[in-house]
Design brief:
single chain, about 325 residues, alpha+beta, 9 helices, about 30% strand
Length: about 325
């Protein structure tokens, strides 16, 4: 049963993964999920059906486009674009907090041009790294299609110069069973169930600090994403130690009595906090508040510093199968 597996995690050997993110784009690229972006030909993309008026909005779809930079662009209005993000499934607070105030223009192999939105944190590096006329790969999300063409948001870019060196070992790009990250980037551990709807239990006593109900929550947009519904608990131990746990890919989110779970609710160890989702996989993360686990990523501060329910994401995940939560919290002595 899933809850039994989760409860065992607190008794495993303690080995802390110290991962500190750098603010420069190369460091961010090491943790960006390039594999989930589908190779797409821009010329073919531009020939797809367009509405006569208005916008056709879709669930956010990741695409990779090989293009030429036609213009560094600059400020462009994004209010309508953000409304489309909400329609496509992004929570309003995430859309409101997303910093997108610039556009660039790119050119296809056949010379067609398209203006695309780009996250400000990415745009800050692009003019210095990519001269007009150079080729680059865009990793973008398709949000809508209007009479003028597709509406895209660029989350990352690569040029031939920024591509990984050939002498570096290739990343493990096979997808984890949860379907949210590649195995080389997977920030937690996945548990499988023989059926959907089974109970998911809290690892330890805690408080609910985040509830994400959107099935469209992506892994890259916003930066700390998830893959559908998830719950985050904050566990405070006798010695003052704090651990956040995240339970991802849930079906229904409900408490021990079957009623909807509420922000700020107190739960006990083994209490139900939700149900296994339709793909029969639970993705579990464990994030201790400890030296070396606090991200220094500039993008995190710009995106989440004023969002209290995202504080948990400041602390990088560790391997739940090698971390002894009980010893960390002072419940008992560390095991060898």
């Amino acid at each position: 049963m899933l809850p039994l597996h989760v409860r065992k995690l607190g008794w495993l050997v303690a080995t802390l993964l110290l991962v500190v993110f750098n603010a420069i784009p190369d460091a961010a690229r090491a943790d960006f999920n390039f594999a989930r972006y589908k190779e797409t030909d821009l010329d073919e993309f531009l020939t797809r059906r367009r509405p006569a008026t208005g916008r056709d909005v879709y669930p956010m779809s990741p695409v990779k486009l090989d293009v030429t930079l036609a213009s560094h662009g600059g400020p462009c209005p994004s209010q309508d674009f953000k409304r489309a993000l909400i329609t496509s499934g992004m929570p309003k607070q995430d859309s409101d907090g997303l910093q997108v105030t610039n556009c660039i223009t790119v050119r296809s192999a056949q010379g067609r041009e398209l203006k695309v939105f780009i996250q400000d944190v990415v745009y800050g590096f692009l003019p210095d790294e990519v001269p007009v006329g150079d080729k680059l790969s865009l990793y973008a999300i398709h949000i809508y299609t209007s009479p003028e063409g597709p509406g895209l948001l660029v989350n990352e870019f690569l040029t031939p110069k920024s591509a990984p060196r050939a002498d570096k070992p290739p990343p493990n790009t096979a997808m984890a069973s949860c379907g949210c990250w590649t195995l080389g980037e997977h920030p937690g551990v996945d548990f499988t169930s023989d059926k959907a709807g089974g109970p998911v239990a809290a690892m330890a006593d805690g408080v609910v600090v985040k509830i994400e109900n959107s099935e469209q929550t992506p892994a890259d947009l916003p930066i700390i994403g998830g893959c559908g519904r998830y719950v985050v608990l904050k566990h405070t131990y006798p010695n003052g130690g704090i651990i956040y746990t995240r339970y991802v890919q849930l079906g229904r989110i409900n408490g021990p009595n079957g009623q909807p779970l509420a922000m700020g609710a107190t739960v006990k160890a083994k209490d139900t906090i939700g149900e296994v989702g339709p793909n029969k996989v639970l993705h579990f993360e464990l994030r201790p508040v400890a030296p070396g686990t606090i991200t220094t990523d500039k993008a995190w501060a710009e995106r989440y510093a004023n969002m209290p329910d995202m504080e948990w994401s400041r602390y990088n995940p560790v391997d739940p199968q090698k971390f002894d939560a009980a010893s960390f919290g002072g419940v008992r002595k560390a095991t060898k």
